[in-house]
Amino acid sequence: xxxxxxxxxxxxxxxxxxxxxxxxxxxxxxxxxxxxxxxxxxxxxxxxxxxxxxxxxxxxxxxxxxxxxxxxxxxxxxxxxxxxxxxxxxxxxxxxxxxxxxxxxxxxxxxxxxxxxxxxxxxxxxxxxxxxxxxxxxxxxxxxxxxxxxxxxxxxxxxxxxxxxxxxxxxxxxxxxxxxxxxxxxxxxxxxxxxxxxxxxxxxxxxxxxxxxxxxxxxxxxxxxxxxxxxxxxxxxxxxxxxxxxxxxxxxxxxxxxxxxxxxxxxxxxxxxxxxxxxxxxxxxxxxxxxxxxxxxxxxxxxxxxxxxxxxxxxxxxxxxxxxxxxxxxxxxxxxxxxxxxxxxxxxxxxxxxxxxxxxxxxxxxxxxxxxxxx
Length: 375
Description:
alpha/beta; lipid metabolism; 12 helices; 19 strands; transit peptide; seven-stranded mixed sheet; six-stranded parallel sheet; ADH-like_N
């Protein structure tokens, strides 16, 4: 990984979609370059690029990209921060269902400051903070040039680590709470993967609605600390998987109602535990499969409990023409983060330490906070 951060100047990479890549590359200098025929160029850029799919720590490298034209409807954004999400890693590996053609710049969400705008851009000005909304590939670089329609102006009062990470995980939590079961104050939900950012957001968003949460965590070092952290966020009950090895898990509910809705991002036995908690007619929504193990459901669960199994993929929801709705929810979530009502742990890492952040995101150094690259 040490070799990754050796900067390589790119003269002419043969991109499978040159126009697509040009729209993602720009770089960092104090002034804009203007040619004699008045074409506005972005500064040159530094970017994390992969030219083939594979293990991210093997196929990614830092490159210097030349300036790109800022067309009349384009906005050049100086990136401030961008996270390393599991889906980013999957895209680089080539296993994610939707991914840009290679070579490509990594990253899918982030926050930046408007650096320059094209002559026909009316809604944004230099100095504005923006995020790509819906998310857009190519955020792991110092500057990004895309059309104005890609960018959503946000409140600068929101901490940058939340602005950079607000879409993929918090929006997933919000949509799952609202899209599958009509929940009312006093109801409850159950979830595994509760220590994930989605899980933490579920706890807090549910609490704001008067909904109780039953949370399942893995048995591993630090589980007691994790339990206390989730309780501090508002979790009603937190159980390790081993604690639920009892014949009647519902006996552990106390005064909480049986949940009508469950969330699964793990699979395997952890998914079975969510199903055991659900009341008759309940629904389990799967949005991940961290254990890479299948979900096994008994025949009795369908016949006698009439359970429903659903799936949620944010990319699919965003592709349904919900840009306006998405941006309204982003503003709502950013407001909660600004007011301290939505919290999750992140670690800010300078761009030149990207290899270390990537190793942490890949799990090489144990459980780590969400890695957020700062530019």
